């Protein structure tokens, strides 16, 4: 009913996003992406083009699909998801949470106005904040 | 300071968990697990023994690891994570959120007193509830 008041209360994506982002470029090999993912630090690799602009995202889901399938793909660009759902640093976290839920995904790259990745917001980060709310 | 009051306020796992659980048994083939995961309905397959008791969990992370690695494994029990973090239906969601965060995982099987899976709680489900709180 009062959007001004609501946005004043909601934390921003910037406050809970992870600023340490592991990424990959679109012309690297799938096995390089797999190695990065299997280090276990992240389950979401933003894919960048030569200019550092976000062009896709790759997860262990895509790796499994590629290897379990016909195995004919070799490069990240062939298996990445190109239509990336993302967030901005100033976005209220409830809007970001809705994007995760509606699209059944578990993380959003956070981009600046030039589509450069400045962070990543995962459902686990949201859960962290959520846990905190009920503890205090 | 007042745990009684806090638990009275916090929603329970039962209220937001997903009751439709896709699972697998430990002696099925890895490719069967991959097929179930790649249908995209879930990223977490609880693994059950012959008596329906929870004995492990498998995600696309484990599938990727198995296929990208030496490829010598064939059965789910060989690649599943055996030490499963889980929740109970009556657990407050903030406790469950902490388990996700501290263990860097994105879902918890929800079990009854006999270790039978009655639901699954994902970080996305938590985000859903979280989004709702700032909207109202
Ligand atoms: C450590 S996470 C790393 C990737 C990513 N952070 C994620 O949440 O999927 C991946 C591993 O966690 C395991 N895992 C997922 N949910 C689990 C749970 N509830 N209890 C124990 N292990 C779990 C999977 O079997 C997989 O080996």
From TrEMBL, chains A, B:
Coiled coil: none
Taxonomy, superkingdom: Archaea
Domain CBS stretches: 17-75, 80-136
Descriptive protein name: CBS domain-containing protein
Source organism of the structure: Methanoculleus taiwanensis
């Amino acid at each position: 009913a009062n959007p001004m008041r609501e946005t004043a209360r909601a934390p921003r994506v910037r406050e809970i996003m992870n600023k340490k982002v592991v990424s990959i470029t679109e012309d690297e090999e799938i096995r390089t992406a797999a190695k990065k993912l299997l280090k276990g630090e992240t389950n979401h690799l933003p894919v960048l083009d030569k200019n550092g602009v976000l062009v896709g995202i790759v997860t262990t889901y895509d790796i499994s699909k590629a290897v379990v399938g016909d195995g004919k793909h070799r490069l990240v660009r062939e298996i990445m998801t190109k239509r990336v759902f993302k967030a901005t640093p100033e976005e209220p976290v409830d809007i970001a949470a809705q994007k995760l839920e509606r699209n059944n995904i578990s993380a959003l790259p956070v981009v600046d106005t030039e589509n450069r990745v400045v962070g990543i917001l995962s459902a686990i980060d949201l859960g962290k904040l959520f846990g905190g709310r009920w503890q205090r």
